Amino acid sequence: MVTKNRQQFLFLSMHNEKKIIQDLLENKTDAFVKVRNLVFPSLKYWIRKNNGTEADAWDVFQESLIVLIAKAQDPDFQLFGSLKGFLGTIQKRIWLKKLEKKQKIKVTPLEKKELVYENGVDAALIEHENFLLYKKHFNQLSPKCRHILTLFFQKNSFSVIAKTIGFANKDVAKNEKYKCQKKLTQKIKQDPLFKKNQ
Amino acid sequence: MNYFELIDRYLDNSLSPSDKMAFEKELLTNEDLKTDLHIQKKMRAYQQIESNVKNQVQQLKKPSKHIKYRWLWAAAASVLLLMGVFILQENNNQKNKQALASLTTPPRYSLDKGKPSDNQMDESISVLFNNRHFAAVIPILEQKVQNNSKDYQALLYLGISYCHNNQIDKGQTSFDRIINGDAINKDEAQYWKAICLLNHGNIPAAKQILSDLKQNAKGHISEMSKKLLQII
Asked: Does A29 contact B52 at a Cβ distance shorter than 8 Å?
């Protein structure tokens, strides 16, 4: 009887977590609130215990959600464990990586090993590396290129881009956007990390 | 149609059926096209997801008031007695909320009609900043500051934009450049630095700056700091 109830409980929570992920993909505020309530208090506590602040916890929370949503867009994505466990592992790995970078702390292989316990986490961490890689190269573009591409990604028409930036017409805007897009694509392709993660 | 336009149209699903078929046939053998398509697809996805998540997380950071239901029975017992006090407090809270909003809302970016050289750029900044499109206005403000490193007014708006875009360190650096430079808007920079700290939960540091401003700043900044200190 206990086992049956446990199974029902697991089925219900899996169903709820699938729904939460679907709602995150649709950018529904309720889903973000649920995930915050599910993982943020323990994340904040853990990060504070590991040389971080509340602001660091929010940054890590934000990055882990970007990774989760990017992964969940893949039609083959499957959450094998619990959402809390999946996000928790990703968040800890993100923070340990940031600590390694910031304070040059060497994270022991044991600490890393302890965290890898859920299927799909390694793939999510590659997604995180890719996200940071794209962001790094985007941020290294000139302010003008970033502005053009930001407006383009926000689905503005070339006429609006031309007007906002001050180009003579939409053809000039189109041309400038392609130049920026080409530059960004080349930079990403030349990055050794991109080749490694391919 | 150039190379990237073709990729964009494929991703937008706006190619004709025959062009789409030709594109997909090419994809089977052309590794470069496959990689470039993958990069464009990821770039679009990351931009969209990051923008959505940032906005949602910004909202989540705002403190919410949770009702403690287990205390409701106690509250119910004394509700009549407390009614008068409650109404007064609510009134006060409402006033405080309004005051807090007015003291922490970024100033509007107004166009300086006397400077024709930057008109196009200033108009873009004005539209984007005043409509709170902070991510989009940052590159233009960066450009403006790059054009004139002593444009402290642009630097102030850049600092505010960074803070609203969760780039706290860059925001603080922009404010510090004004504070440590020969600007006339140093007090203003200190004030918005405090608001940035406040919005990101560092209340003690914000209070410290506001106390200094209350004592030493001139005019409206001292008054605004004093009012804010009474609320937080």
From this structure: no
Structure tokens at A64: 């882990």
In a domain, B148, yes or no: yes
* Residues of A with Cβ-Cβ distance to B144 under 8 angstroms: none
**Using CB atoms, which residue from B36, B128, B142 is nearest to A185?**
B36
- For B43, the domain range is 3-58
Q: Report yes or no: B47 and A150 within 8 Å, Cβ to Cβ.
A: yes
Residues B129, B204: one domain? yes
Query: Cα separation of A30 and B170, whole Å?
Result: 31
Please tell me the distance from the alpha carbon of residue A27 to that of residue B146, in angstroms, as a whole number: 36
Instruction: Tell me which chain A residue has its CA closest to the CA of residue B47.
Output: A153
| Chain A residues with CB-CB distance to B205 below 8 A | none
Using the Cβ of B140 and the Cβ atoms of chain A, whether some distance falls under 8 Å is answered with yes
- Judged by CB atoms closer than 8 Å, whether chains meet at B43 and A61 is answered as no
All residues at 6 or more sequence positions from B20 whose CB lies less than 8 Å from its CB, including other chains: B10
Given an 8 Å threshold on Cβ–Cβ distance, is A62 in contact with B46?
Answer: no
Determine the distance from the C-alpha atom of residue A140 to the mean position of all C-alpha atoms in its chain, rounded to a whole number.
19
Q: What's the total number of domains in chain B?
A: 2
Please indicate, yes or no, if residue B78 is contained in any of the structural domains. no
Has residue B112 been placed in a domain? Answer: no
Tens digits of pLDDT across chain B (232 residues): 788 889 999 999 999 999 999 999 999 999 999 999 999 999 999 999 999 999 999 999 876 555 455 555 556 656 656 566 656 666 666 677 777 777 888 888 877 655 555 677 888 888 888 888 888 889 989 988 988 888 888 999 999 999 988 888 899 999 999 988 888 888 999 999 999 888 877 888 888 899 889 888 877 888 889 888 887 7
How far apart, in whole angstroms, are the C-alpha atoms of residue A164 and residue B125? 9
| pLDDT tens readout for residues A108-132 | 554 554 444 455 678 888 889 999 9
Whether residues B121 and B225 share a domain: the answer is yes
Say yes or no: B208 and B125 in one domain: yes
Alpha carbons A105 and A107: distance in angstroms, whole number: 6
Considering only CB atoms, B140 lies closest to which of A138, A147, A149, namely: A147
B143 plus B224 within the same structural domain: yes
